[in-house]
Design goal:
Blueprint: H1 2-36, H2 46-72
Length: 78
C-alpha cells in the first residue's frame, strides 16, 4: 500500500503542472483568437471547457500535494 501512495504522490507532482499548463494554453489560445478576430468572443465548447476545468481541478490537487510534500521533505534545523 505504501508503494501505491508513493506512486500517486509523485504522479500528482508531475501530471498536475502539465494539466495546468495545458489549461493555460487553451485559455491563451481563446483570448488570442478573440483579440485577432473581428467576430468577438469565440464559442466555448467541450473541447475547450474540459481542459480548463481539468486545470482548475489540477490546481487544487497540486496545492494539497505541495502541502504534503512540504511536510514529507521538511528538514528539522534545530
Amino acid at each position: 500500500m505504501k508503494r501505491v501512495k508513493e506512486f500517486w504522490f509523485w504522479f500528482r507532482l508531475v501530471i498536475c503542472p502539465i494539466l495546468i499548463l495545458y489549461g493555460v494554453y487553451i485559455v491563451g489560445k481563446l483570448v488570442g483568437y478573440s483579440m485577432a478576430s473581428q467576430s468577438g468572443l469565440p464559442t466555448i465548447d467541450s473541447t475547450h471547457l474540459a481542459p480548463i476545468a481539468g486545470a482548475i481541478c489540477a490546481l487544487n490537487v497540486l496545492y494539497y500535494t505541495w502541502k504534503e510534500a512540504k511536510i514529507r521533505f521538511a528538514v528539522n534545523h534545530n
